[in-house]
Amino acid sequence: xxxxKPLVAGLLLAASCIASAETRLILKSDAGDYIGQGQNYLYxxxxxxxxxxxxxxxxxxxxxxxxxxWWYLDLAASANATLQPGTYEGAMRFPFQTADKPxxxxxxxxxxxxxxxxxxxxFEVTYGSDGVVTAxxxxxxxHCEGNAPALRGQLSYNLETPLGVTTSGVAVKTxxxxxxxxxxxxxxxxxxxxxxxxxAGLQVNPGDQVSVTVNGNAE
Length: 219
Hints:
Mean pLDDT: 86
Number of helices: 1
Low-confidence stretches: 1-19
Signal peptide: 1-21
Strand order of the largest sheet: 3-2-11-10-9-7-8-6-5-4
Shape: globular
Order of helices and strands: EEEEEEEEEEEEEEEHE
Number of strands: 16
Oligomer: single chain
Keywords: Signal
Protein name: Lipoprotein
Largest sheet: 10 strands, mixed
Organism: Aquipseudomonas campi
Distance between the termini: 25 Å
């Protein structure tokens, strides 16, 4: 099943899935965000083409295209370092970031930020011999011109066990993740509309039966 579609508002929502290799990009745009125009988006191999390359700051560039839209994402560590797992705070607009700041830029459909503030997390990343990324699990948040409305994204590329959900119409209180195969479970208090069980610590192998329960109030 696709556990990443917006969930119907309710007090208790559940989804179950089988872990498998997948590429996906989830975007959640606040009202007033210029880039995403206040909309939510889901792209996978089924409805979009993903092209990765190495940018000139030793970072990661991604182009996502469909027949009627296109998006570009750039991520870079400070001081031209290769991106590794970790949290990158205080990001500035790529490629105009200062040497001591990470770079971030998400744009598309003719819209881009003149300046931005933001952050991103790299949860997993592997590279080929040419330095181009071969697998990636990351999330990012950017604010155009330093304004309050945010564009948030969650990206998984060529991973065996990306396990995320996105919600709408629910004021979320907790997420419960259960690996029915191993018996491991975890509960996390979070109001975030984007949540990934693997990022939260759930251990999953390909083929494991997994369920995700969302507990909250209908908006």
